[in-house]
Amino acid sequence: MSKHILIVDDDALLRRSLAFHLEQAGYRVTSAASAEDALAIVRRVLPNLVLLDIGLPGMDGLDALRQIKDQYAIPVIFVTARRRDLDEVLGLELGADDYVTKPFDVDVLLAHIKAVLRRTETVTRLAGKTSVLVAGDLTIEPNTHRATLGDRELALTPREFDLLHTLALEPRRVFSVDELLGQVWGAEFVGQPQVVYVHIRWLREKLEEDPNNPTRLITVRGVGYKLEPKGE
């Protein structure tokens, strides 16, 4: 299976360009425009490597790096326009595996990625991906992409599974549409709310006794959606 790389940068043109080149090189790519979305994605899918900008809106890359390294054994390469030595030293002391400054040659970045993946491929990642998630009578097994409701296995598409998994990680928490777009589909889908509406509808067809009167996937008007566990 191809290695999965998460790009975290608030520059949409750079994200798209990097994603194109990485996919051409054979990698699977997910993108995030903020550290908050990136941490949610890491929690759910555990990418093989993170390309992380330092200067991000909201939480900056250094804080995101600290949180990633506190919880997961995932290699991180800083990709940033900041050239100050302090940032580089601080980033590497916090646990960054490499550091590339903008502008950069794509071939050079690809060489850095290959080198870091080679160094870290024997590292055992934490067991979060294999743990079973239970929310009431809903059970989600991320490692096998299997979801069951009671004793019934749900036939979910990969994106439906990712959406349900994201909601189930924080049951009863209301997620905005933009949060779901950023965390499930990636930064390039933000601003396309119909994608969420359609997938929520499809999930309700598979989860709800009456999809037109849902009791599990709840709409909170003007805010977003939440998963309400049943059978607890």
Could you explain the architecture of this structure?
34% of the residues are buried. It is elongated and about 55 Å long. It is an alpha/beta fold. The model is unreliable at 123-130 (pLDDT under 50). It has 2 domains: 4-127, Rossmann fold; 130-227, Orthogonal Bundle (Arc Repressor Mutant, subunit A), CATH 1.10.10.10. Strand 4 (76-80), helix 4 and strand 5 (98-101) form a beta-alpha-beta unit. Helices cover 41% and strands 20% of the residues. The strands form 3 sheets. It has a 5-stranded parallel beta sheet with strand order 2-1-3-4-5, sandwiched between helices. Strands 6-7-8-9 form a 4-stranded antiparallel beta sheet, with helices on one face.
